Hints:
alpha+beta, Cathepsin D, subunit A, domain 1, 2 domains, 9 helices, 10 strands, 36% helix
Amino acid sequence: MPPRRPFTALLLFLSLLSGCAAQNAGLPPAALAGQKADFTSGYAMLSCNLGCVSDYGFHRKDMKKLYDAGDWNGLYGEVLNIGEDIDQGWFYLGASAEGLGDDEAAQRYYFISLISPFQCRRGLNVCDGLDLPALTEQRLTALDAKLAASPEFAQLAAPPGPPGAETDIHLLPGKGLFQVPALLDGKIPLLFAVDSGSSGVTIPEGLAVLMFDKGLMKKSDIVGVTHAVMGNGSVAPVIIFHIASLRVGGVVLKNVIGGITPGPGELLLGQTFLNRFKSWSIDNSRQMLVLQPE
């Protein structure tokens, strides 16, 4: 596996600039119930750090047994109850989501596992026999193939229309925003939320790590760092890079400006994509993204 240290160190440094997540040890039952409700959408959070280390260590053998048995409901419930922000915990959430058929949620949790600042192999348990992060990347590769073959992504196989023709792309419901299937650099199928309020196309840093490992992103693709206001109102550093190609429906754009956001991040299709067209609109009645090329 190619070394990831320089790029990961940069991401970690930028994450520290944006502030550390609060520790949430001892969440009240109502908050835990809210986390579980978010699980299937991919937005469950693990934000306890040092305060949960002993609790995680005490229960880690139980979690491994649940993982080996394929008890996905029991596993994700145990992981959320503890709340430890560790790559193994995020991997368990990904495995649980994948086992329960929530592939997009699994993809998100696996991405976070790759960039969690706390890693199980740094301790004495060496991840309970799990070869992380190699196993995480293996599961992401398998999910890529599964998602690419799903009905939601079938429209990516449609041939491009004639030059200058309007393109209609079927939208999917998402968490507050419509989503659109896309193919990043011709290899990675993803669901991007269409967000005209976002200045660019953004990806989470875990996906960026994966792209570096697969040779889909190089240091020369990174062109700078800026700061942006996140959805929660906080200001965070964003790494700016060039996306070689981005396919949405039958439309393929080359050399799209993208941003890598710290932490879990979001997959957003913003203005650096939308502004490349003469006009664009969302037809709510047909649930279509309508693109009119120059």
